[in-house]
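2024-03-11 09:14:02 INFO receiving multi-entity request
2024-03-11 09:14:02 INFO entity count = two
2024-03-11 09:14:03 INFO echoing inputs for audit
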Amino acid sequence: MHGGGVAAAMAALALARAFGRLGVELLWVDTGDGPSAHTALTAPPDLATFHRLLGLDDRALTRGAAATFNMGQQFAGWGGDDSAFLHAYGDAGTPFASLPFLQHWTRARHAGLGVGLEDFCLAAAAAKQGRTGGLADSATRQSVKTGWHVDAAAYARLLRVGCVAAGVRIIKGQSVRPIPSDDAARLDAVGVDGETIAADLFVDTRGTLIDLLDNDEMVPYASPCDRLLRASLAPFDPLPLYSRVAAHGAGWTALTPLADRTAVAFHYDSACLSDDEARTALGAMTGRPVHDAAEMVEGGDRLRPWIGNVIALGGAAGTPPPLDGAELLLLQLGVAQLVLLWPLDRGAMPEADIYNGELNGSRARVKDFTAQHFRLNGRADAFWSAARARPISDELAAKIELFSARGMFAHFGHEAHVEDGWALCMAGHAIVPRGFDPQILSVEEPALMREFQRQLGAVAADVRAMESHAEALVRARG
Amino acid sequence: MGRRFDLVIVGGGTAGWMCAAACAAKLDRSRFRIRLIESEEIGTVGVGEATLPQMKDFNDFLGLDEVEFMQATQASFKLGIEFVNWGREGDRYIHPFGTFGRPIGEADFFSYWVRAHHNGTAAPLSDYCFPIVAARQNHFMLPTGKADDVRNAFAYAYHLDAFLYARYLRRWAEERGIERVEGRIVDVERDTESGRVAAVTLQSDARIEGDMFVDCSGFRSLLLGQALGVELEEWTHWLPCDRAVAVPSVRSTDFTPYTRSTRRKAGWQWRIPLQHRTGNGYVYASQYISDDEAAAALLSSLDGEALAEPRVLRFTAGKRRYAWAQNVVGMGLAGGFLEPLESTSIYLVQMAIMHMLTLLPSGRTIDPALPNEFNRVMDVEYDRIRDFLILHYVANDPAAPLWQQVTAMDIPQSLTAKIERFRNRAYVEAYRDGLFGPPSWQAVFVGQGIMPAAADRLADAMPDAVLADRLGKLAQTIERGAATAPLHADFVARYCPAPLP
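2024-03-11 09:21:47 INFO inference complete, emitting structure
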């Protein structure tokens, strides 16, 4: 294990818990890289499940990482006006008359209905009203999932504590030198501050080990914003259940609620905004001057994250998309896949090929999800017009086209987001499908209106029965 | 209310009447006019058909009564397919409609089995599969519906007379307002501007217009292939069988709850037990055997007296480049053909129907996103089945020219990787859409002698003795469970006895 921060700690912990009992010895050469100051991370609901495997419980997260519950992301100002929508983690309406809710909604929009899709979504309604938690007896019967917002540095520390408990040996390593095999197809060892450490398998979250073996061109990938400034604000009161991604003229600002502060990430394109202008803008927002140098956001993905006996994870594998909790999502997918494909043999590792196929597939779908926001934005600024014109994959083009035509979803391999998540975003970005399933017309209009009223009432009733964010956090802290 | 949407189904075989019945079940007749054109003069290809468990979903979707349906089609139950002489002469294995084992630890069951197999402490894989063990005893029962019961860990399909199924669905659909038009199509008229099919003309000079046409005309592919010129993508270089000779025989005492496929010199032979007779056929590559020789080989291997003259069918493996072009959707043989080695024909018709219904245009104008999606998902279905069929061919001893050819041929890259990955570490990709799931691949790999060197290392965490104990108990539970099920023949006689034809 080579690297630092969240990625190295998460990988070490997962591997130690899965394979420590099989006699696998884990050594983590901690390079000391950590998250930048002020960084918060968004953990989508899948990660909450993954935490069980890592032995991280609600109590540890809320007490140790300033965690708050995450029910979705709000996108504000992406349509060119001051409107906002919520990508919530839950069902977008309840199926009716054996047909998907979205079809009924589309028909009703064509007939002049003004109610948005997210108003029929319990998770969205609850998040907006600061309510969360499970229901014993739900009127909507909709699924509501939650993830987390965490302080990145504290989260990394929690994972590190877990590593120690799980028997990972951790040494500090400032200068780490890869020592390749004679044929340069794999690594034999690493030199750490003068000492040579041999191993069968290397996990690299920094990238300097795999670089030695990697002769591929990087697969180009870049966020539309090449600069990032971070800051913190006082915590919101009450604490929101979602992060907010607000578009500005040359990028966007992400506000992530933590228990003890609000993390601010100001993303911008240096072609549209100078670093000084950005610092001024962020300073005006936070009420205190900003002097930090901007982080450069460089793009590119490794064609093969697993080469020989070296696996790149986290930033070493590629640049995660800048939204939608993609950073932790991709890291988790990479770690989980490595556990599933743990090599059988220290020699040839044919698992690499499967791993690379799986990860590239997942990465493509995760990127598509974020790319939709840029493609579908409705702003007139030069930055946003350029973002709209960025090329998209054939798969995303097919998804947008089918949704726009019919309110349906084209499923490809390795989908990482659920249909209703896509629906809330596409509808949020103001797509009303052009057509709908004609079979929907067998439901008479008055019956449909009654059903809509019933569903809105059920959403309201369920929201009332939920607990507040503060109550949920008190319970989590135990 | 505007004019009704006019849907015209061309051809009344199994595909045509399945489509008509699904439209009858799903489409509001005040908005959709549905007609089916068929000619009494044109026979259908219907031979004894074996199906997949998805067919039960289709029947449930229509709301058919299972007992009535089985009586009307002389149907029997099917727990899987037995493959005889595949791999090596004398071998036999069953590809079941169910999973192997049940969860016994944090790794998947198959990984534990591979480990125990290498330790020499595992019974054959089939002993851990309820539908296989029941099938071997000629036993059958319906799933118990109890979640933790091994006698619930399977699905079932049917053997049926496809001709009778079409007839049954015809009555069912006509009772629900589907209009049947008798007549032979002599002309297909296309709109000169758009290229769409505007109407078909019958021998009687009747002209039938439609907004959309479903081509169920069989191999002729009257609309999709002939009128619109959508070409056939041929897969004969991978699937060289191009003919079948079929004959029914008297029902034998061996009333199996499974289909049998026996590998032969120039292809393979099917055996499908129905209530009133047994369906048999020899699928072969005509370059390696003559029609007469194939018919003779078939007749000499029946386990009951032949009830008719053998009938030869010709086909080409492949699919139409687009299953939906303009305003025509091709289904069944009009859309493509894959040999019935894994009983996928009716499944493919069913998938085409269900996808068409969810993507049905809301008016005369067809948004191009709809056919694009339809063609994409049908391509996925075809490609997956194709690879699975080819797998059956490549893993065999090459004792005859056909088998020399197919075991030495270049296979799709997608399949090469699948085989390698299974050999290396028992890896089978699980995908969301389309056939076949991991248990199917495991059954055929292991059945035809492709064994994994090792499996998921998470399975190594269980102590040997615990693993051996859990496997032993599971096999015993399955054996006992299967023994409690009645004989298939008795079950059918009690549950759904069909009248003598």
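2024-03-11 09:21:48 INFO post-check: The CA atoms of residues 242 and 315 of chain B lie 5 Å apart.
2024-03-11 09:21:48 INFO post-check: Chain B is about 35% helix and 20% strand.
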